[in-house]
Amino acid sequence: MEIILARPRGFCAGVNRAITIVNKALDLYGPPVYVLHEIVHNTHVISELAAKGAVFVEQLEDIPADSVTIFSAHGVSRTVMERARTLGLRTIDATCPLVAKVHRRVTRLNKIRYDVLVIGHKGHPEVVGTCGHAAGAVHVVSSPEELADLEVADPTRVGYVTQTTLSIDDTAEMLAAIRKRFPDISEPERTDICFATTNRQGSARELAGMVDLLLVVGSKNSSNSNRLREVARTRGIPAYLIDHAAEVDPVWLEGVKRIGVTAGASAPEYLVEDLTKWLQQHGAASVREMDGEDESVHFQLPNLSV
After folding, report:
1. Domain 98-181 has what CATH class?
2. One fold for both 13-97 and 98-181?
3. Architecture of 2-11+194-289 per CATH?
4. Which of 101, 124, 155, 296 is buried most deeply by CB count within 10 Å?
5. 52/33 Cα distance (integer angstroms)
6. Active site annotation includes 289
7. 13-97 in CATH: which number?
8. pLDDT band at 177, cuts 50/70/90?
9. Does the pLDDT at position 259 exceed 90?
10. 148 pLDDT band (50/70/90 cuts)?
């Protein structure tokens, strides 16, 4: 049995930046440092930061006044930012720069009286935060069927943005429906689906053609990790999303000659290493990494003085 590792996989630039922000804030100000929502969607990352003194909360009202407060990589609404100031919190914004770019486009479109379609998963923190930057009409759409009854002020003045972690295949179908429904749709110059999501889905797609089984390392609430599993399954390859090696069912390995392993953008590399060791202990004889693209993007940290 052979293990083939996806390339690229694991942490993206936005996740690296967000985790670094929390660690540096802990160094600068000492614990506790409060984080609104999970800084990224990975249970292991959250546990490690909590052990260092990061406190994760779901409501700003749960944070004591004058506390250092970090907004997660998924971004928050302008209302949340204003509420934090009202409560006297010292805030640091860890929103991924690519998500912040989507926020700015929503605001620009609304200012010129465009309705904005936000393509994404209803209730996901990134989508909620994006809608919270609207200065006018905004509509969350998750499927082509939802477009039929959608009412806008002027069908010739509609634009769209997307959640950055969507499936490329699903989004292509969605965009085809949007262009048919709104022929004059205003489109971003480049897709809002981030380069890391695109790269990881591309490597998972290629890997699915090489293996009998794909294991995706990532937490269940990670959107981009779930999309990696879907990429393989839509190509007829069994695929499972696991938080760690202990979740692997040995039954999955029966009759398997090649196992593909990838990891979502918020999953630490040591989890891939642990999974690789576990698979070697259960019959895998070799490990190799597929050819792929190296990511060299690094995002600048925000001002941490609060």
Report:
1. alpha beta
2. no
3. 3-Layer(aba) Sandwich (3.40)
4. 124
5. 9
6. no
7. 3.40.50.11270
8. very high
9. yes
10. confident
